[in-house]
Design goal:
Elements (H helix, E strand, L loop, with lengths): L11 H65 L2 H13 L4 H11 L6 E6 L4 E3 L4 H6 L1 H4 L5 E7 L2 E12 L2 E12 L1 H11 L2 E6 L2 E5 L9 E2 L4 E3 L4 E7 L10 E7 H35 L3 H14 L14 H35 L9 H18 L2 E9 L2 H8 L1 H18 L5 E4 L4 E8 L2 H17 L2 E3 L2 E3 L3 E8 L8 H18 L5 E3 L1 H9 L8
Parallel strand pairs: 17-18
Antiparallel strand pairs: 1-2, 1-5, 3-4, 4-5, 6-7, 6-11, 8-9, 9-10, 10-11, 12-14, 12-17, 13-14, 15-16
Helix pairs in contact: 1-7, 2-3, 8-9, 11-12, 12-13
Length: 534
Amino acid sequence: MSLTMPSFFLSYRVRLVVYSSLLILFLITITVYSYHYVHKLIRTEVDEHIRRIADISHTRIKDMHLALQGYTEIVRDDLRLQEYMFVVTAIGSEKQPLQELFQRHFAWIPTDRKMIIADNGTLLVGKQDKVFLQKITHLLRADAPQTVYIEADDGLELVSMAPISYRDSSLGKVIVTRRLGKQWLETQHKDTGVMSFYEKDGRIVASCSSSLLNTKMDITTTKLISSTDSYHTYQLVLPNTTTDMPRLWFALKDTDINARLNQHQRTILVLVITGIAAISLFGLLLIRNFTKPLTQLMNMTREIAAGKLPQQEITYAHGEIAALANQFADMVKALAEQQREIEQVHAALEKSAITDMLTGLYNRRYLQVIFPKLIAQAKRDNSHLAAILIDIDHFKRINDTHGHVAGDLCLAHFSDELKKHSRANDYLFRIGGEEFLILAIADEISGMQNYAEKLRQSIESTPASHNQQLIHFTISCGVSFDTPLSLEGDTLTHILSRADRALYKAKEKGRNQVQIDEDSVALLRTLPGTISSH
């Protein structure tokens, strides 16, 4: 006996109710899954966000580390300072001329502490601090440059030391430091929106928020619970720190995370209710007009389920299904527009991550990304890399005289001139406060020198304007080169250090000029197939 379906179930109305019920059940299932998935995704996003912030802070600390090393080397290699120290330490002359020389030539160094200590332990330059000197006793005994962390009252202090000698005679040590204390923590919080603090022995000893001071923390579970909030934490492990030193942590409030989850839950609920209502209405309209528009609508639904946003023309046919199809087309159009907006915002975020906000030039972070590509291009084309390191002369004087707003305007004015004179294949960077860098594939030495000189003359003859007042300023440029035969190891450090050496020479000769690193030129001329100086 054959089985036949009752005529009741052959009704399109009943079938549509069954299908609509199944669709509603499917919607609820997808919604529940989506809620749990997004819940997990938000938690994961929070972890990734804190890790990204920690990575950015780690990069900044590394940059600070390198900067301190550079400052100590600048002071250490100053011949006049060596001569004055020799007179003070070997002959026993007064310290005041040495202190005045140091203040005159190195007051610009942006550090929290600058000291020069003789080999016999006498403090020649800097403020006396017995506690600090006790903490760096092991550094004073070292013969090679070192950069270490020491514990400070409100966190850590990064200390860089380099020995000073004169004619192979050891004279003493130069020491510069930067504090990574409460003020630094507050800056991190202002820049990232993430809480940061130092913990030692399970207790917070320094924080960007005074409410967290002396709060206990469970190190085994990395849980932080204050009197008002709980926090999601992440530790940034700094190199060369001991277990008895404060540890650096980043944190986000769980209340902020829960608020996002609750908002998502409310949104999901609204979407479910809206979806059920839409499906019910959809079924009623189909019952009244089960014709061609339904097929078109079903096809559109399949494409959306496949992740596509099809273009659907607005129709002028009468009927509920046609109206629903038009509404669906409007919704797809709105989704497509929102998707384009999201892509535009994403592109803007990617651009802001690699550019300097004030000048629009590339930042130091992008320098680390693009430099390997330039090396590969130079090797592939058998060409040469050139670097022009530029520093605005007496920029501090501009800030002191006209104010920091005028200083920012001068930076923006200079970057505009730099873009105006740059070539298509030049990469322009702002790598410091008033320090800029041009990287390019070079064809000849004189071309890069003329390029830098043309830029220097343009800046000298084109002042910036602020409050109807012209601000004249100049620049100093250091030019260096590297070749494919030497593009091995830390080439970025080599080419920048050579450019910095040429820049220092330009400053030493009176500023407002272009200097080429002589070692770079000598290297290029000795290698076969290198660029011409003419």
